Amino acid sequence: MSELKRTALHDLHIELGARMVPFSGYEMPVQYAPGVLKEHLQCRAAAGLFDVGHMGQVILRPRSGDVADAARALESLVPVDVLGLAPGRQRYAMFTDDAGGILDDLMVANRDDHLFLVVNAACKADDLAHLRAHLGDTCAVDEITDRGLLALQGPAAEAVLEGLAPGAAGLRFMDVATLASDFGPLWVSRSGYTGEDGFEISVEAGQAEPLARALLADGAVEPIGLGARDSLRLEAGLCLYGQDIDRSTSPVEAGLSWAIQKVRRTGGARAGGFPGAVRILDELDTGPGRLRVGLRPQTRAPMREGTRLFAAETGGDPVGAVTSGAFGPSVEAPISMGYVPVDLAGEGRNLWGEVRGKRLPVRVAALPFTAAKYKR
Amino acid sequence: MKYTEEHEWLRVEDDLVVVGITEHAAEQLGDIVFVDLPEEGTTVSKDDEVVVIESVKAASDILAPLDGEIVEVNEALTDNPGLVNDDPLGEAWFFKMKIEDLSALDDYMDEGDYKKFIG
């Protein structure tokens, strides 16, 4: 087994009493002393600090000096309008493969003279190779390894960060900016993975721990582990790569069509031109065969990843499966997401999920399970 | 009080064996969010899966520690699974069993042995 990597906050996690687990090649905190439920509720009630330093930070710097060239090049790998992304703005995207599946999902920010990408830890080596192979002529592709990445999420996040990095409060959802602070320049985006208002903050590695300590010094902020991060994102209806989306799911099946702007769709000025465009555009035009949906188990038993879904209480083959499932601490009930055929995907549709050999009722539900609190 | 290697505690009360999980087990499992109890009157064999508990992390089973009959279950856990974390050795017992011969309990660990077992 290869050595696990550590983030810039490793020693702080230990000091804070975290239970550390291997995650995507890193040693990461899964929970702290209060535990997953309390950490989850803390983030929704006040603010939570997450170490997301395992994620990949990548800069695409156009060799021409014109960021439009980097944007145009990146559009050959994602079904997203990158050229139309204004300076100081960020957008959700996904790398697709030739079959229309998803290689990874990511954030793309236009930081004036370059594009800044945040990709999943488990995919970052493949993503870098993919970017270099296809964009290497147009852009220098640099992985940023000398910066940590923190997320500060929750209703108190704005006031707390504004105190340390003036200007944070002036950002809107999906704005990005470089903010001056006592911890060096912070690359801040107003976004996150919890459904709450909040920020993701890229900071010089040597300043990551002092910044984290300064944030935690505010009584409103507590550290949050991967356990609560997962229940928060599930309540927010957000996909986890490798579970809810992967190479076997298209963006349209995954309910991510909102991320594919008109200009990249059939009839748009830059329609297609990304891997898997034939399938993805066809699914946008005529509808996919199946869809990712929210699911509310009708008993208290959680339906976890892999739970097979049936159209009837007895007989028949499975019609789909749960891709993420857990107890939702804010919903106060079990919640799941999964894929079902479109004719069974209507809200309120009753299905059955097989738990420990028994089929239990489950109902198709709207996503997200908890309303998003973004500051638009 | 006796202890199993599955981190259950067994306590004799009015000729019945009361079964719960240890503090160590509750802490390892994390926040309990669901408890599925057996029917009262069920006859069980040792090592049958009789209770399912789900934490925020995963599902796990509680096994019957002995042959016998489940005579009472703790319905309070159905509505308040978090009781298992709050009071694992007290209010959060899972079920009471009637067994033929209480001496079967002698095979299980006492508190000192259990403490060594969990190290």
Brief sketch in words of this structure:
The complex is a heterodimer of chains A (376) and B (119). Chain A has helices spanning 10-15, 36-45, 67-74, 124-135, 157-164, 205-216, 226-235, 277-286; strands spanning 19-23, 26-31, 47-51, 56-62, 90-96, 102-111, 114-119, 139-143, 147-153, 176-179, 186-189, 198-204, 221-223, 290-297, 308-310, 320-328, 333-341, 350-355, 358-365.
Task: Give an account of the 3D structure.
The complex is a heterodimer of chains A (about 375) and B (about 120). Chain A has about 375 residues and is α+β, with helices and mostly antiparallel strands. In chain A, about 20% of the residues lie in helices and about 30% in strands. Chain A contains eight helices and 19 strands. Chain B has a single domain (about 1-100), classed as RNA polymerase II/Efflux pump adaptor protein, barrel-sandwich hybrid domain (OB fold (Dihydrolipoamide Acetyltransferase, E2P)), CATH 2.40.50. Helix content of chain B is about 20%, strand content about 35%. In chain B, a hairpin with a 4-residue loop joins strand 1 and strand 2 (about 10-15). The chains are: A alpha+beta (about 375), B alpha+beta (about 120). The interface of A and B includes residues 38, 231, 304 and 326 of A. Chain A: This is aminomethyltransferase. Chain A: Its EC number is 2.1.2.10. Chain A: Pfam families: GCV_T, GCV_T_C.
Structural class of chain A: alpha+beta
CATH topology of the domain at 10-53 and 146-235 in chain A: Gyrase A, domain 2
Q: Distance N terminus to C terminus of chain B?
A: 18 Å
Helix percent band of chain B: 10-25%
